[in-house]
Write a sequence for this structure.
């Protein structure tokens, strides 16, 4: 399990927690095809996150 904000930082899409808040306010972020605005959203293997035209798929690991 990883939180959305942590994933966005690991993926290099943001630099800090404050940047995550700003990204979620400015960009459309989809989790499994549904809009998401909570940086603390828990993600699990198999989930798919789409932001700024990039797709991130979580795998076990």
């Amino acid at each position: 399990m990883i939180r959305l904000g942590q994933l966005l930082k690991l993926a290099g899409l943001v630099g800090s927690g404050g940047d995550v808040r700003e990204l979620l306010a400015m960009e459309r972020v989809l989790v499994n095809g549904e809009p998401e605005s909570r940086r603390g959203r828990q993600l699990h293997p198999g989930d798919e996150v789409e932001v700024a035209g990039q797709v991130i798929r979580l795998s076990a690991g």
Residues 2-57 form a domain with the Structural Genomics Hypothetical 15.5 Kd Protein In mrcA-pckA Intergenic Region; Chain A fold (CATH 3.10.290.10).
